[in-house]
Amino acid sequence: MEDKNKEVMEKGKEAVIESVATPAETVETAAVVAEPVIPPEAAKEEITPEEVKNLLPSLDGWKPVTKLGKEVMENKWDLKSILEAGIKIKEFQIVDKLMPELGHEIIYIGGSPGKGGGSQRTITKKTARMHKSGRRFRISSLVVVGNGDGIIGVGQGTGKEHRNAIEKAVEHAKLNMVFIKRGCGSWQCACGQPHSLPLRGVGRAGSVKVELKPAPRGTGLAVSDDLKKILKAAGVKDAWCRTSGNTSARTNLIKAGFNALKSMNNMKQPNFLEKSLIKNADQNLERSLIKNTDQNLEKTVDQKISEKSE
Ligand SMILES: [Zn+2]
What we know:
- The protein starts with a helix and ends with a helix.
- The protein is of the alpha+beta class.
- It is built from 11 helices and 11 strands.
- β8 and β9 (208-214) form a beta hairpin.
- The chain has 3 domains: 1-25; 34-113 and 121-178, Double Stranded RNA Binding Domain, CATH 3.30.160.20; 180-276, 2-Layer Sandwich (Ribosomal Protein S5, domain 2), CATH 3.30.230.10.
- The site of zinc ion (ZN) has 8 residues, from loops.
């Protein structure tokens, strides 16, 4: 039995090696397999974030159409350089290819009325329009995508079913990605490490205004739970914030936070801010001042003594 198993294993290994050696064939076969098969879960009313991860589209059967997509297939790019070069991503599979382990966070934008007033927050928002034969529903969702190291995207999606809406939102978020400048703009800290924001940023969406401010190390995220999701995805560890407007409109709150983070890129920073030399420069200045004053003091004392002696 063991010998047979070994043979099977070796055959399997060979098969894997062959398939790796000829990627074009695997892509074609995968395209045949990836026919739209609607799983039975599609009919379900509610969907959990764990289920969504299994339902997300994979790279199987992707044939790049754009120039960027073709170059990505040839491993000529990484995501940060694409975003910094300002090239627009038109195929979400580019992000899947470059960052296969990109996490996503679903914002609870919806609500279903619960017992005794108030509402239970849900991951999707269900809206209705009236038709002569009854109500027609539409479901929308909002998703934040980020690698926790400066790259984030926010996307919105609408569909007839929960899973469609969430899938569309994730795809949209991947087309809507930006690289965010981080830094230490806090005068209390001035460590120069990228744990916070380089400067104060303001973002607006609808009536909501979000103002994000740099905070010293150890502050944490002094923001609401929804804004925490977007700041965590961006890799910001310490921040203060002030909001105004109708912040219970989650969609606008998240969009305003995203705009505030994007506004960090509108300001041109001097090199020494990025290279974290502020603190050292300050220390050097202090040292030199102390030294000079000491020397001056000594000199003056010496002079006075010499003058008196004369
Ligand atoms: Zn700092």
